[in-house]
Amino acid sequence: MTHTLTAQWVVLDIEGTLTATSEVHVVLYDYARPRLGPWIDEHPDDDRVTAAVTETKQDAGLPADASTEDVVGVLHSWMDADRKASPLKTLQGLIWEHGYRHRELVSTYFPDVVPRLRAWKAAGLGLAVFSSGSVAGQVASFSHTTEGDLRQLFDHHFDTVNAGPKRVASSYAAIRAELGSPDPAQLVFLSDVPAELDGAAADGWRTVGLARPGEPFADADFGDHRVVTTFDDVRIERADG
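RE: above sequence
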């Protein structure tokens, strides 16, 4: 079944929606894991790094003089639990940015994704990303892909720092305000996580769930949300006004 919607903005999740979950949990996590400690030690004057280390210590109840090894132990435990912790996402994003810039990482998307993104962009729709991964990591991931540099496709990037948690309505209200769209019906959010779709719907957005075969939420209960298995099954047209 093909779903047809009209909107001005399309906002997209990444993991499980644009890319396979293994792209993050295997490829990117395995790249960042051994580099966290060296990155912290090699960037003592980077305010983003020092702030992330301080926040990690505070969140984990570590003393202010805790060693890098202690901090990395916490970060690794958060990775194992797939905890969406802001300091972890910041550090991962910086490391991934380095990896993409030096062509050590390359992003791969589901085959239906890039053609559809380009079609939506060509039709005049605004495209934005809302992911738990840091904005820096998002931008970097689109810079070096199997389909070339895709950064020009996206007008805005949102994460849990500049928007808020992905499962609460207030985050989607904040994104809506930033996009200059007071009418939530002009925004469509696509994600593979039902609870994230619930958050968007609570702010009045239209939603589309991605139940991609083989992905963790393929058999999830999406409730009243529209559900597709591929972008080819959803048609989004530019709304007037």
